[in-house]
Amino acid sequence: MKIYLLPGLGFDCRIFDRLDFKGLDVEYINWIEPQQHENIREYSKRLFHKLPETEAGSILIGHSFGGIVAQEIATWKRVEKVILISSVKARSEIPGYFRILKPLKLYKFFTKELSIRTVNYWGPKHDLSNAEVLELFKSMVGRQSNNYLQWALKALSAWHAPSLPESTPVFQIHGTADKTFPISLIKNPNAVVEGGTHMMVYKQPDSISEIIRKEILSGLQ
């Protein structure tokens, strides 16, 4: 069984470095440059175009925006399961401060330079709160283009959850202290991590790894 991992918006797959996938067949997917006027479904197809259409039994694991893209992939590619970490599965779970970005065109003001320069002010709210995590954030965001960052924020702002095949379950892991996607908006998450923030994938890897392994192994029984 192949497991594909997609990072959050502006991040790369170093966000998964602390998770334990020992003995599992995993592949890390990093973001590609979006094309002009490309929607999120079209983007997801280009992102995964090299993967065999006939491949069965795949599991998609997405952190934050990566979970949104994973759900888009699952509309056209046969997958066994989608696992969301600190992500959303419905438009109602997206906070208003993200939903206004497209209609007010605020996404156009976001750049990697601005994000890196101001992270010390807004970062602590999203658990970007110690030197190691801050340096990782700056390194990951610094590798992205402003075109990608603005496209992704616009896509997030406009996203409506697609209809997935009944045979493709979505398993949602969420933290009680997530300030990016507050748990108060999350309807019936499958696994709740007490004190988990939006960065729990990196800062609470043992808990997340245990939940993921248990969920994957349950599907093999």
Secondary structure tally, helices: 8
CATH level-4 homologous superfamily of the domain at 2-95 and 160-218: Alpha/Beta hydrolase fold, catalytic domain
Instruction: Note the overall shape.
Output: globular
CATH topology call of the domain at 2-95 and 160-218: Rossmann fold
CATH architecture of the domain at 2-95 and 160-218: 3-Layer(aba) Sandwich
CATH class of the domain at 2-95 and 160-218: Alpha Beta
| Beta-strand share of residues | 5-15%
Strand order in space, largest sheet = 2-1-3-4-5-6
Alpha-beta classification: alpha/beta
Describe the largest sheet: 6 strands, parallel
Highlighted features:
221 residues, alpha/beta, Rossmann fold, 6-stranded parallel sheet, 8 helices, 6 strands
